[in-house]
Automatic annotation (TrEMBL):
Lineage of the species this protein comes from: Bacteria, Pseudomonadati, Planctomycetota, Planctomycetia, Planctomycetales
Residues in VWFA domain copies: 212-371
Name of the protein: VWA domain containing CoxE-like protein
One Pfam family matching this protein: VWA_CoxE
Domain of life: Bacteria
Originating species: Planctomicrobium piriforme
SMART domains associated with the record: VWA
Length: 376
């Protein structure tokens, strides 16, 4: 550790008052300092983020961070042991316990993705009554996410346009504008310069035969993967509900948990996720190989940041065996909240050389990719 890094750490420990002694902070450390200040500035009498003696929280001053924002931020900025200490101080020293002890607070909260992630990160601290309120909140957010993502998945599997046949199913995406204009020209009103559409025409669609395919989704549940875990649980449930494929959903850290039985309900899936811990990607890939029934009609989707904690050669060997058996394999790089890929490029490149497809995709792009593979 350099002297500059060491001084930066002391500056974070001692707070704003040590600026002249320790110097400035890097951009990343400034964000850490704000997160620490949200909690520990409560020590300093009247002012920002101070809890008054009566137990009521004081004004936020310059900071407008909420408790859910703070929870999500510390989980992204600090290692596990530091997070545990911050959560302990928040609950025991500053009574910042609304999220984990008060079901009324959760029942009044406006469901949103930020609150969902904060709940999933602190559910291990909740008692049973609070957990029930939290689960209701999770369901509200997941239901909204299901509605938006289901459109992408279902449209990808509806089939390709069959321009040789007509359809009685009058939906916008099947509309044949050329035939409609040509066959309704006799209804053109020259005086009004308007074409009256008496009979609209629509294409039919070719149904894709995907019922014999197997989809195995492996999701890394390390701390940085929360956005991917949420989307994966919802996507797996949508695929499962379509009944077009045999879907498996497994989460992993240093062990593998098969959640296929809960796949129909993404809320049940998410409430069983335990974020953090080590990562053994190779073990998860090996587990997937044991689920394969027909390699030529199986797709394995591995969603991870590719930071392998176990010996890498086991991962590459397991990945190569799947490819050689005929399984279609996709390594999907983790996406953060802004859809930016965050992953170990070196490991991802090695997986690509083994024969895996490696990419960064949104949920909608993933649905289209899978649809293209099963259509071939």
């Amino acid at each position: 550790m350099s002297n500059l890094q060491r001084m930066g750490r002391w500056r974070l420990v001692m707070g704003e008052g040590a600026k002249e002694l320790c110097g400035g902070l890097s951009e990343e450390d400034q964000i850490r300092d704000q997160a620490l200040g949200f909690l520990y500035d409560r020590e300093y009498g009247h002012g920002r983020n101070v809890r008054e003696s009566g137990g009521q929280q004081g004004g936020l001053g310059q900071s407008c961070m909420t408790v859910p924002d703070w929870i999500n931020q510390i989980h992204e900025l600090f290692p596990k042991k530091t997070i545990e200490r911050l959560e302990k101080d928040a609950l025991e020293r500053y009574q910042l316990d609304e999220m984990v002890t008060n079901p009324d607070v959760l029942s009044r909260a406006q469901p949103n993705p930020t609150l969902l992630k904060a709940v999933l990160r602190t559910k291990h601290l909740m008692n049973q009554q609070v957990l029930q309120a939290a689960q209701h909140l999770v369901r509200n957010v997941v239901d909204e996410l299901m509605k938006s993502l289901a459109v992408d998945v279902r449209s990808a599997f509806q089939g390709t346009l069959d321009r040789r046949n007509r359809s009685n199913l009058k939906i916008a995406k099947n509309f044949d504008i050329d035939a409609t204009l040509r066959r309704n020209l006799k209804h053109y009103d020259a005086s009004r310069q308007q074409l009256l559409i008496e009979t609209p025409y629509f294409f039919s669609r070719i149904r894709r035969q995907v019922d014999k395919w197997q989809l195995i989704i492996l999701v890394d549940e390390s701390g940085s993967m929360l956005d991917s875990v949420i989307h994966s649980a919802v996507m797996a449930s949508i695929f499962y509900s379509l009944k077009m494929m045999k879907v498996h959903l497994c989460i992993f850290d240093t062990s593998v948990v098969d959640l296929t039985a809960e796949c129909i309900d993404p809320v049940e899936t998410l409430m069983k996720v335990q974020l953090g811990g080590g990562t053994d990607i190779g073990q998860a890939v090996h587990y997937a190989s044991q689920l394969v029934e027909n390699p030529r009609r199986t797709i394995v989707v591995l969603i991870t940041d590719f930071f392998e904690g176990a010996p890498e050669q086991r991962l590459f060997a397991a990945g190569r065996r799947l490819i050689e058996s005929g399984v279609t394999c996709l390594g999907l790089a983790a996406l953060d909240g802004q859809a930016n890929p965050t992953y170990d490029h070196r490991t991802a490149e090695r997986m690509a050389r083994v024969g895996w497809h490696v990419a960064a995709m949104t949920p909608g792009e993933l649905a289209n990719w899978i649809a293209e593979k099963v259509r071939k």
